Amino acid sequence: MTGHSLRLRRLRRFGASAGPRKRGAQPKVVALGGGRGLSASLAALRRITGDLTAVVTVADDGGSSGRLREELGVLPPGDLRKALAALCGDDDWGQTWARVIQHRFHSRGELHDHAVGNVLIVALWEQLGDHVQALDLVGKLLGAHGRVLPMSAVPLELQALVRGHDPDRPDELGTVRGQATVALTPGEVQSVHLVPSDPPAVPEAVAAVLDADWVVLGPGSWFSSVIPHLLVPELLDALVETKARRVLSLNLAPQPGETDGFSPQRHLEVLGRHAPKLTLDVVLADEAAVPDRDSLADAAKRLGAAVELAPVAVAGGAFAQGEGPGPVPKHDPELLAAAYDRIFRMHGRIGPWR
Q1: Closest by alpha carbon to 114, among 78, 60, 148?
Q2: How far apart (Å, rounded) are the C-alpha atoms in residues 234 and 200?
Q3: How far apart are CA 261 and CA 271, in angstroms?
Q4: 54, 87 in Cβ contact below 8 A?
Q5: The dihedral formed by the CA atoms of 205, 210, 212 and 218, expressed in degrees to the nearest 10
Q6: How, if at all, do strands 173-177 and 157-163 pair?
Q7: Is 84 helix (H, G, I), strand (E, B) or coil?
Q8: How confident is the model at residue 352 (pLDDT cuts 50, 70, 90)?
Q9: CA dist., res. 152 & res. 183, Å (int)
Q10: CA distances from 288 to 30, 89, 300, 311, 313 (A)
Q11: Band of the pLDDT at 308, cuts 50, 70, 90?
C-alpha cells in the first residue's frame, strides 16, 4: 500500500468523524476550482444545499494576490476571497459583506488595487497561524453558506508547456511560468504542472472529497483553475477513490488565450490526459454552447460520463469581464442551480439525503 493510500485511509476516517447523516439531510457537495468559474458554481450550489465546501486553487501570482504573496510569502488569497463572496447570502448582511470584501482600494500609494478581503484573510492567517481556522472565521463573519478551503497549504507555481508561445516560432515548444501568464499566453497550451510537483494537500480538503455525495469540477479557466486540482497527488487520489459522484461543468465558451479555439470535447480530452485514472459521472454543458453533441457524448463516454445539456447562461448574451483578455459569457445562478439539482436527483446518490 502506498503512502498516499495510507494517508487517504486516515483522512477518510477524519472526514467521517462527524457521524452518520440523518435521513432527509441535504447532499454533501464539494466544488473545486478557482476564480469566477468557481464563484459561479458556488452561487448556484448554495441555493440547493447547505452542506457545501469549496476547494480552491492557490497558484495565483497576479494582481493583489501576487503582490501579497511576494511580499509576505503567504498563499494567494484572491480566489479564496471570491469563493467566500460567492457563498454570501442574498440578504442585506450577506450582500453588504460580499461588497466589502470585494472592494478594492484606489490610490496612488501601496494600497492601490488591493482587495479588502485579501488583506483581511492574510491578517487572520498571521494572527491565527492556521489557514483553515482563519478562513472558517471569515466565513462565520460573512454568514457564508458553506466552507472555503485551499487545495494546498503552500503557494504553488503553475507552469505550462506551450506550442507557439513565440509567434515567430509557431511550432516550437516552450515553458511559460505563472498562473497569470498562462491565462494570457499566446500559442497553444499542451500541458501544465505545478512547482513543487508533489505539494501537500490540505487534509480537510481531502477529507471533504472523500466524504462527499457529489464533487463538482469546473467551470473555470481550464489550465489555470480546473486542472491544477488534479496535479496535487493526495487530492487526485481522493477524487479517484471517493464514493461520491462526479460532475464536470463545462465553460460557456473557450477562454481567449488559454483555451482559444477549444471545442467542448477537447476540454474533456485535455482533462483526461492530465488525470487518466479519473472517471466522471456527468458532464454538464450549456445546450447553446455545444455545436457537435455526438462528439461531446463520445468524449464524455471515454471518461465514464453521461452528458446533460441545459440552459445555464444568462439570457440575452450578458457578458462579464473574464480572467483572460476580454469578456466572457455569464452563468445564471438560478438556471445553473436548477441544472445541478436535476443532476443530483436523476443520477443517483450514495447516502440518504433525499
Answers
A1: 78
A2: 7
A3: 16
A4: yes
A5: 60
A6: antiparallel
A7: helix
A8: very low
A9: 20
A10: 27, 29, 17, 7, 9
A11: very high
- Cβ atoms of 23 and 141 within 8 Å: the answer is no
Is the per-residue pLDDT at 23 higher than 80? no
83 — alpha (psi -120 to 50), left (phi > 0) or beta?
Answer: alpha
**Is 29 in contact with 51 (CB distance < 8 Å)?**
yes
- Please, which residues have CB within 8 angstroms of residue 272's CB and are 6 or more apart in sequence? 278, 302, 303
Handedness of CA 302, 306, 312, 317 (dihedral sign): positive
**CA-wise closest residue to 306 among 315, 314, 297:** 297
**pLDDT given for residue 259 in this prediction:** 87
Which residue(s) pair with 28 in the sheet? 51
Residue whose C-alpha is closest to residue 183's, from 287, 65, 81: 65
Say how far apart CA 8 and CA 86 lie, in whole Å. 29
* H-only helix segments in the chain: 3-15, 35-45, 63-72, 78-86, 92-102, 116-128, 131-142, 179-184, 203-210, 233-241, 264-274, 293-302, 333-346
How buried is 309 (Cβ within 10 angstroms: 0-12 exposed, 13-18 middle, 19+ buried)? Answer: middle
> Which of 312, 320, 303 lies closest to 343 in space, CA to CA?
312
146-173 pLDDT, tens digit each: 999 999 999 999 999 998 777 778 778 8
Instruction: Supply the mean pLDDT for the chain.
Output: 88
- Sequence-distant (≥ 6) Cβ neighbours of residue 217 within 8 angstroms: 31, 32, 33, 226, 229, 246, 247, 248, 249
Q: Dig out the grid coordinates for 54 from the structure.
A: 469549496
- pLDDT tens column, 205-259: 999 999 999 999 999 999 999 999 999 999 999 999 999 999 999 999 988 878 8
